[in-house]
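Researcher: For the record, we're logging two predictions in this thread. I'll number them. Prediction 1 follows.
Model: Prediction 1, sequence and structure:
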Amino acid sequence: MSGRLRERRRERAAGDEGFTIVEAVVSMVLLMVLSTVVLAAVVSNLRVADQVRSRTTATGLATREVAEARALLDAGSISVSELASATATTNPTPLDGGTVGEDLTVAGTDFTVQRTIELATGSQGQALCGTGGTGSTTLNGSDSLVVRIAVSVTWSNRMSYAPVEVVELVPLPESLSLANGGVLVVVQVVDPTSGGAGVEGAKVELSVKRSNGNGFTLQAGTTDANGCVVARMTSVDGYTYTAVATKSGYVSQSWTTSASSTLGSLSYRAAVSWTTISYAQAGAVQVRLTNAEGTAAATDAEAAGLSLTLLCSSSGTAASGGGWTTTLTAATLDVRVWPCLYSAYVGDEVPASMTQVQVEPPVSENDVTTIWVRPGYGIVSGLTAPVVPDPDESGSAEESDDPDAEPDGATDPETGTDAGTGEDAEPGEDGGTGTDASPGTGTDPGSEGADDPSGGTGGTAEAGG
């Protein structure tokens, strides 16, 4: 009986061996990998769902802002001047209990709403500043003026998702119509040296003149990021208009601190008049004159009265064509110029070939392009080292500082040594001149080796006659 029991226990133990440690570890690793994949999928789905909710909320806020803008237009709360300025406002319509300008918080997410209300052309739905061009036009039919409402909404956890943008064109309200007279002046200030980019922050004025010369100035506004400003004019007949732009550190192509463009006479029958002004950040240049040899800087006295000409390789500037010429009063000239590739020369004669230097707008306040100009040569890289004569090539030694030094070729009367060179005088040479002694010159004709009465050392005397 007990034997059978023991046998059954052994059989049961043999059939219930369980998992090994390796099997258990492999199972845990597979479970962790599967859990990671599932968890990542769950997190991604939650993120997408959160973005969908945020995007839906943003779309609702954008639609709400467009409706608010239309209500302002219908109520006459926005003037043509405000439409012309096309200024973007941030969070202009707060939520209940909120403040204008603060972010709109919905379900823990912060939303930022930007709204722009501006005049546009109906055919393209394009803002007036975006159309560019020059001259005047009457906008009728599909090209009639409309109001463009543009709203953009972003949110705090948007990551790489695009913002919600809504653009709506609405008819120009009757209260804002130009039918009773007036014209919109669109001025765009651009920098041709930067690919025609708009100049932001330029102050634009309209100079108004009557035929008798009397006139006044109107403030058009400050250019936006596109370099544009729009102004509404009334009672325009009989006047001539000129748009003038000013901004610190900028110059016109004529090198003046302000740039202008003439609009001419405007008519109320033309709804919109465009003009473009070229304006660029000035390049700071210091022109320095060398002497005629190019070895040293010229003095003010040497430079005074000379004419200097700067030549710009671009057309339409003050230095284009024949160049910009001025009479120097000093050897150094500081000038602010239109960015360009420049050459320069002094005087009336143009050098056969001239070096050119690119003048760029300064990176910092003290950034100045220095140009050295040598008379007869134009722009040079700098001063050249003065040429010092070679004593061996000139055939003469440098002068001695000793005032009592003997001249070259003299022979020391005591030693018979050349005083200038230190070399021994040759035998038979005259003590004073270093030449062979001749009969009757003080050498004893009857004796050999007799002393020369003049102090020189005689050689073998030739017999006197």
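Researcher: Logged. Prediction 2.
Model: Prediction 2, sequence and structure:
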Amino acid sequence: MKKRIKRVFIGISIIVAVAVIATTSCITASVVWPVSGGTLDKKTAGTYRLITLNIAHGRGLALDQRLVPLNRFRRNLEVLGGFLQLSNADFVAMQEIDADSDWNGNFDHLAEIKSHTDFVDSAFGINNVKKGRYQLHYGNALLSRFPIEKKENFPFGSAALGEKGFLYTEMVVNGHRLPVINTHLDYRSRATRIRQLKILIDWLEVQRNADPENFIPPIIVGDFNSRLQKKDSAARYLFDYLESIADYQVYPMDRRTFPTYEPAVAIDLMFIPPQIEVKTMIVPRIKVSDHLPVIVDFVFRGEESDDI
């Protein structure tokens, strides 16, 4: 009986949250969208907008996707797609996004989200592959308003539950190559996170040494399950490496991203290389997941936006 009451309570929470968000979905993309924690409005001409967000398997604000009615997932993703469309984003990196998983409806969540937007291209990197009676397929994905010229996915291992990895994509934006790495690290163990980052760093070193003259330091985003402020953290380990090859900046430095209701830690991060200049950064209190989105507007150094 207690389990049934808990399930009903969580279901009601999802319905209320979706209803609140849905009331804003009729606003056109040409108007300012006020949100707690910042104002998400139209980009300045000449800037590009990047979002990173862990979408929590499409469960919305529920604690566990297995407690969400299966007919709720499409509605949650419709609301999420509406937010992404209204956000005026050019690139959206998502983590914990599913394809054919029994626990949330057995359908392609990336295709569902994309159907509610006008992004022109996408890439899906499946890291967790569990076939059979109870199949689970999920990983990271990128939506882009520019054609994706290169895409390659790298699982960190082969676990049937909880496997993580990184997705490499590269776009050409107004004549500039834009490489983006989207990753998600283990939530349980610092040692595992460090091991996963060593795989990513080793891959970067191979690319850098293979063609040093044409190597472009990538933007690296995702859910790192790690705080940069801790000196021995995985996030700090990655930042120390990146600083050794280029003048990287990290965002957000003064905003918390998890959990959504009472943000306590900043574990959703963007590592920005020197050829990119960030003009604005916000972490809006948009309740579409148990993580908050991190949003930056940027220009390529050497180019000017209208506010320069």
